[in-house]
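As promised in the previous annual report, we have extended the structural survey to additional targets. Below is the entry for Alkene reductase.
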Amino acid sequence: MKALLTPLTLGRVQLQNRIVMAPMTRARANTDGTPGKLAAEYYGQRASVGLVITEGTQPSDDGQGYPATPGIYIDAHVAGWQEVTAAIHAGGARVFFQLMHAGRMSHPDNTPHHRQGVAPSAVAPGEQIFTLAGMQDIPMPRALLTEEIPATINEYRHAARRAVDAGGDGVEIHGVAYLIHQFLALSANRRTDRYGGALQHRARFAIEVAQAIVAEIGADRTGIRLSPGFTGMGLHHGDEGPDLYRYFVGELDKLGLAYLHIVHYGDEALLSDLRKLWHQALILNRPERAREDFGKDVASGLADLESYGQMTLANPDFIARLKAGAPLNTADRATYFGSSPEGYAVGYTDYPALHRS
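The corresponding structure token record, generated without further manual editing, is:
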């Protein structure tokens, strides 16, 4: 546990400890994609961690998948997020924006332009998605034309610059489940151009996104989140999954990114290989990490930081509770997304801290 509470230099910023607030979609943004009225309070409450990674923020109209998720690509978004980043910095934490292009995990009812989602190929995920009209089938996405891909990459680059304009210390490329991952996955990518086929080609889109962001804001302000064991949302890599991620991480390592953030689902041999391939900071998230295991990955050297999701959601004073050995609040799944009938703050900014529990 003690190792978690030591400082660390991450890219160009100094972190007060090695605990990361994982990105968590909360679906409480305004209709124009600006942060909701309590976003600064929500994030500021949790700023005793070393690094806050924001909820997924779409880099464009095409990038929105769900209702009430925030964006970071127009002036109004920047102005709204400036209040949030100021609150996070006031609490001592640093903040990276997670850039999340939903790709095919979208519905026209949820996007500003009401168009079908875009994806590497016209392959529907075979799932439903929440809309304001209720759960609906996700429609067939439109396959991006080869000549459209540079513009999509540029959306990420532009959003990275806007995130820094908004006071962000950097950005995290969301590489799990959504557009980046859809290009990687055999089940979603049936292209025959330079972005499909062999694993090296399927990784090309993600690598070019990372290169564009690095050119715009610097490698030391760029991270990426991956999950080699994730198989939800109709995604799979066949038998070549481990080789795909070994290749991909090796190529990303050459860019000198600030960090690699892995959501880990149990392939310890692959995790060990990725640790050896990666020469910068590694953040490790174990979704089912037990309290007695807090800090073990940092102490062992497997990771440089550990990220926590629902535990930081439910415990605004997560660090204080760890230091005191105090009990942890339990997150209420019923209030993860959107406002509840009882009020906007319920399950958002009303979790009790030790001094008021």
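The mean pLDDT is 96. The CA atoms of residues 269 and 295 lie 20 Å apart. These points will be discussed at the next consortium meeting with the crystallography subgroup.
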